[in-house]
Amino acid sequence: MTDPAMTELPAMTDLAAMTDLTALRERIRAHDKLVVAYSGGVDSALVAVVAHQELGERALAVTAVSPSLPERERRHARRFAAEHGFAHLEATTREQDDPAYTANGADRCYHCKSALFDALDPLAALSGARIALGTNLDDLGDHRPGQAAARERGAIAPLVEAGLGKAAVRAASRELGLGTAEKPAAACLSSRIAYGDPVRPEVLAAVERTEDALHALGFPVCRVRAHADGTVARVELPADELPRALAHRSEVDTAAREAGFSFCALDLAGFTSGRMNALLPLTPVSR
């Protein structure tokens, strides 16, 4: 006989996901038209899909393209949009032209998001749409200066309004059968550069090339943090992957050096999202 306790949990989990989806749909239907800031990540992908389902042609997903967007993420965003049939555009952002952004102070994300809104505002104004972000409830507890820019520009965050944190976003995505449900968390390449070191295109490219090499070696979850003005690569991998990384240390070191770094270090503490924020107390604010 099947143990009832073994059958209740999946049903409860599915019910919770469906409830979250219902709340998200209600928040999105509250708006006539939306321009979704869509990176192709777990959060923005869910918002883009549900906006398309609820609003149809009155929803538009826009990907911001700049040197801080990894090419692999750009390709993924295109494929996902095509697979799910929602309207998708790319807009070039010019954050690298802003000295306050390239200075890479503690408020870098504010200036980056401001550049995003500079690109999206005309599109939204043209159709009378609101701008929707993929911010989830868990993001509110992190260092996210970009949220101030979002408030200033009147952008909305449907996932926050519906009460969805990251785990709920993944569960809701799974309920819809989205391939992004298990997609590793991603972040812009500029977040890999130590605060206070300038954001330079060649350093962004070095980070991207090294991470691509790590993916090719079978490390889908990784971060390459650039220190000492882009001369040192600090590689973060999940703690249980460290033994295998040491077995491939020669390939990892070669990849980092060929990408443009002078030194490569493996962080023995393992991967932790947002580790650069440990430097914030030492970082000036440029705004």
How would you characterize this protein structure?
This protein starts with a helix and ends in a 21-residue tail after the last strand. The protein has eleven helices and seven strands. Helix 1 crosses helix 8 (166-175) and helix 9 packs antiparallel against helix 11. The radius of gyration is 20 Å and the shape is globular. By secondary structure, it is an alpha/beta fold. The longest helix is centred in the first third of the chain and has 26 residues, at 4-29. The protein has helices at residues 4-29, 42-55, 71-84, 99-102, 108-127, 146-153, 158-161, 166-175, 201-216, 242-247, 249-259; strands at 34-37, 59-65, 88-92, 130-132, 223-227, 232-236, 263-266. The relative contact order is 0.13. The strands form two sheets. The chain has a four-stranded parallel sheet with strand order 3-2-1-4, sandwiched between helices. A three-stranded mixed sheet has the order 5-6-7.
- What percentage of residues falls in helices of 4 or more residues? 40-55%
In what order do the strands lie side by side in the largest sheet?
Answer: 3-2-1-4
Class computed from helices, strands and strand pairing: alpha/beta
Low-confidence stretches: 1-12
List keywords for this structure.
287 residues, alpha/beta, three-stranded mixed β-sheet, 11 helices, 7 strands, 11% strand, globular
